[in-house]
């Protein structure tokens, strides 16, 4: 890791399961890498950041 620092985040179990599924499907080393991929995508696509971050979505609210 370049100049990385460790951060703790709290995720619902469904989100952890999603990340674990992405790790398996895409041959990633771990869920940390999956999260970094998501962040890198958002950073590389500033035109999509509003779409990614501004809209409230709750897939767990039922």
Protein architecture, described:
With 62 residues, the protein is an all-alpha fold. The protein has a domain at 13-53. Helices cover 53% and strands 0% of the residues. The chain contains three helices and no strands. The protein has helices spanning 13-26, 31-44, 49-53. Helix 1 (13-26) packs across helix 2 (31-44). The model has no long low-confidence stretch (mean pLDDT 91).
What are the SSEs and their pairings?
Blueprint: H1 13-26, H2 31-44, H3 49-53
Helix pairs in contact: 1-2
The Rg value, from CA coordinates, equals 13 Å
Shape verdict: globular
Q: Report how far the terminal alpha carbons are from each other.
A: 38 Å
Portion in strands = under 5%
Structural class: mainly alpha
Strand tally: 0
Mean pLDDT: 91
Helix content: 40-55%
Could you name the key traits of this structure?
62 residues, 3 helices
In short:
By secondary structure, this protein is mainly α. It has helices spanning 13-26, 31-44, 49-53.
